[in-house]
Structures are given as structure tokens and as C-alpha cells.
Known about the structure:
mainly alpha
Amino acid sequence: MTTPIQATDAPVVTPANSGIPLTQPLTAQPDQTFTAAQVEQFRAEEKAKLYKQQEELKAQQKAMQAELDKYKSAEDARETEAKATAEAAAAAQKAKDEEELDAKSLLAKRDQEWSAKFAQLEAERARDHALLEKERQYSELQAYIARRVTEERDDIEENLLDLVTGSTPEQVEASIVSMKQRSMRIMENARQNGVMTRAAMPGVSSAAGNAGPLDQLGEPREPTAEEIASYAPGSPEHLAARARYGIGRQQAPSMFG
């Protein structure tokens, strides 16, 4: 049996000097004292209550941390998904832009090629037109020379007929005058020397042939339409252009032959 501790035997332990926080303050009745066992019991009960409260707080903190972790994981997942979606969209846009750029580049290249081809065709068309126009002028000039030589052939020595030339009617007329003067000098010399045979008269044979501009200059560059238009009919440049493009390769024998 526990013997009560009297106030004269030991100091009285009260809530104020026990050092133990109490949820329920100990109230002592007047002249009431506590035994050491009761004090220890009070302490144990208070400690149990504190431990229980701590455990509950820890459980609450753990649950809150779990909720935070769950929320953070969901937020990270959303950010990762949004980032992946944005990267995929950027990659798709980049591919689309590159495809459009390639298509535009291809179209620009084709337009450039077609423009160059069209310019080439235009240049060829203009050149052909200039050649045809020059050929028309040349044919008219040759017809004029043939007509005038026929009209004046009685006053020009036969060996000098092929020397009547010119790029314009004025030049042809000047050439006819020159050939008529030469013919008169030849005939005068023949009479003075007593040689009347035309076969013995000096002349320039047309069979010797002339070296064309292409033979002398080698393969020239292709003339432009403007250059062809500037050629005088029958000039070396005109004849070279005719030979280059195969004009007049098959002709009838000389009109004077």
C-alpha cells in the first residue's frame, strides 16, 4: 500500500513547477497533494497526447506532401505535353515552310529557264526575220544587177560582166560606168596592138573562186539580228551570214554563164 506523501516529507509538485505542459490543468483542492506516481502518470498521459498530436501532424503533412507531389507531377506532365505539342507544331511548320520554299525556288528556277528559252527563241526569230529581209534585199539587188548588165552588155566586155557589183543601185551604176570605161580602154588597146580577138583580152576569171569571210576568219560568233540588219546586201559579212545559215547553197548557174 502506497503511503501518502505529506507536505512535511517532500516538496509539493504542482502544474506550475512540474515542467509538463498539460492539456487539462491540474486543479488542486486546498490542502491536496500528489504522489510521485500520480505525477509520473500525468507526465505519461501528457506525453502520449503530445506523441499522438505529433503523429497526426506528421500524417497530415505526409498527406499534404503527397497531394503536392501529385499536383506537381500532373503539372509537370502538362508542361511536358505542352512542350512536346509546341515542338511538334514548330517542326511541322518548319517542314511546311521548307516545302513551300523548295516549291517557290523550283518555280523561280523554271520561270528563269523559260524566260531564258523565250529570250533565245525571240532572238532566233528576230535573226531569221533579219536574214529573210536581207535576202529579199539581196535578191532585188541581184535582179537589178542582172537587168542592168543585160541592158549594158553591148558596151561592156564579156570578161568584165561578172565584175559589175555593188550593194546599192547607186553602187551598181557606178560599177557599170567603171566597167564600160575599162572596156573602152581594152578595146582601144586591142585596136592599137592589132589584136581584135576577145579571147586574148585580159580579164578576171570567175572560176578562180573567192575566199569567203568564213574561210578567212574561221568560225565566227553567231551574229545578232541587229548586226544582220546592218549588213549591206552582197557584202562579205552578208555573204558569210548566208553561208553560215545555208542560204543560197543550191543556186542555178550564173546568169552570165
